[in-house]
Each structure stands twice: as C-alpha cells, then as structure tokens.
Amino acid sequence: MARILVTGSANGLGAIVAKRLVANGHSVVLHARNAQRAQDATSACPGAETVVTGDLSSISETKHLAEEVNKLGALDCIIHNAGLFRGGYRETSDGIPALAAVNTLAPYILTCLVDRPKRLVFLSSEMHRSGDASMEDILWTQRGERRWSDTTAYCNSKLHNVLFAKAFARQWPDVKSNALDPGWVATKMGGSGAPGSIEAAVQSYVLLAEGTEPAAQKSGKYIRPGKKEDRPKAGADDEKIQDRLLAICAEFTGLKLS
C-alpha cells in the first residue's frame, strides 16, 4: 500500500483518481484550497485518509500547506494535479497571476518543502508544445495584465511542469519524477465536449502513483493517456533551460532545493 497526496482533488480528475487509488487499497491524502472545498473533497472520496487545505495561489499558504503535509508523515508519492486555465489575470497578494502561482510556483514550493517522497508526478498537457522555452518573464511581472493571455500562460506553465519533472529526476536520482499528460477530457476544466478518455487518463495517473509496473520505474519521462510514453517538446531535455526555471522559482520564493 502506498501513501499518496493528490493536490486539487476536490473535483475533476483529481477526485476521480483519488477514488481509484483508495479502491486499489492505497492511503490517499486529499487537498483543497479552503474548508468548503475540503468538505467537497471528503464527500467525493469518503475513503481517503485525510484532507489538507491551502490556497496554492498564495506563496505563504503553500508553504504552510507543506508544513501540514510533513506533520502527517512520509509519503510515497505526490501528484501535483492542481491547476488553473481560464479565468483572466487575477493578480495574487504576491503580485503575480494566480495561474502562474498555482501551475508553476506551487509544485516547486511543495517539492522543495515536503519531505522527499519516492515518486513525483507533475501534470502537464499536450499544450505544453506551444510553451515558450526562453524562460523570459515566466511569472508575468513585466508583461502584466495588459498583455495577459490565458492560453499563452497555460501552455507555458505546462511546459514548466515537464521541465520540473526532468530537473528533479536529474537532481534526485533516488526519486522517480515524471510528467503526465492526462489528455483533453470532459471535466470542469476540459469542458463537456472534450473527446479524451477519462479511463485512459486515470490509468496513467495510477501507473505513476503506484510505481509498481516496469514503465513506472523510469524517471524524467512524459506519459500520455493509456500508460503511453511519448517525447515532449524539443528542448525539454535542455539542462540549462531546466536550471533557469529552477533559479527563477528559487529567487521569487526564497526557496532552494536541498
């Protein structure tokens, strides 16, 4: 039995995956951004071990969330599932758009601060292929709201998730760190008309979370629905780009990898 944290598990794929992992006999720690969402998460997955709360758009709340997770004891896997897409700029108290905070900074902060698990799963998307690998102004502190684009920011953040998976796989050889593309599926984020298979997406989540199958023994990979390994965007393996992303996140959050 594994102990697995699933961020953003109050609804959508996060909730579906949490239920599947519980059904498979695992101990699952749910996450929601506030108390009301925590109730929703518990109702959606009553067999979970517990639920932790924290707004991932806030650096201070994400740091506190890491502290609360560590109090629970060792984890086998963290699935960085939480993410934002549409909704506009929505500047946070830290002066950056919520999407950049949730999709890029939160996985970095939690990876830095939560006691190192055996497996890390970073949620990406096929849209990462349109992401900008230049690492210029990734937190939109220079472009600001006037030049904001939901789609551009989302594509960039999903590329960041691939880069994180590869960077942590390289820096921590004892951890299996991979990126997961769940496909375009019919959830609140994906919309009712999305053509992808939820079951195929769940299979890939479970593969990487459990870590028992041969395909899950690899690290630094990009996994698509149906447990299929694929090649990500050209440049994702560039260690200089990976290190640049880590350096930007370290500078903004005040956290460095140990």
Walk me through the structure.
α6 links the parallel β6 and β7 (222-224). The chain has helices at residues 12-23, 35-44, 59-71, 98-113, 150-171, 198-210, 239-253, and strands spanning 3-6, 27-32, 50-53, 77-80, 119-123, 176-180, 222-224, 228-230. It has 258 residues and is of the alpha/beta class. It has one domain (3-253): Rossmann fold (3-Layer(aba) Sandwich), CATH 3.40.50. An 8-stranded mixed β-sheet has the order 3-2-1-4-5-6-7-8, sandwiched between helices. It is built from 7 helices and 8 strands, in the order βαβαβαβαβαβαββα. The longest helix is centred in the middle third of the chain and has 22 residues, at 150-171. InterPro entries: NAD(P)-bd_dom_sf, SDR_fam. GO terms for molecular function: oxidoreductase activity.
Percentage of residues in strands? 5-15%
The global form is globular
Q: At the fourth CATH level, what is the homologous superfamily?
A: NAD(P)-binding Rossmann-like Domain
* CATH class call: Alpha Beta
Q: Helix/strand-derived class?
A: alpha/beta
CATH architectural grouping? 3-Layer(aba) Sandwich
- As for the number of domains, it is 1
Number of strands: 8
CATH topology: Rossmann fold
How many individual helices? 7
Q: What is the mean pLDDT? A: 96
Q: Poorly predicted ranges (pLDDT <50, ≥5 residues)?
A: none
Radius of gyration: 17 Å
- H/E series, N to C? EHEHEHEHEHEHEEH
* Oligomer category: single chain
Widest β-sheet, arrangement of strands: 3-2-1-4-5-6-7-8
Largest sheet: 8 strands, mixed
Query: What fraction, in percent, of the residue positions are helical?
Result: 25-40%
Ends apart, CA distance between termini: 28 Å
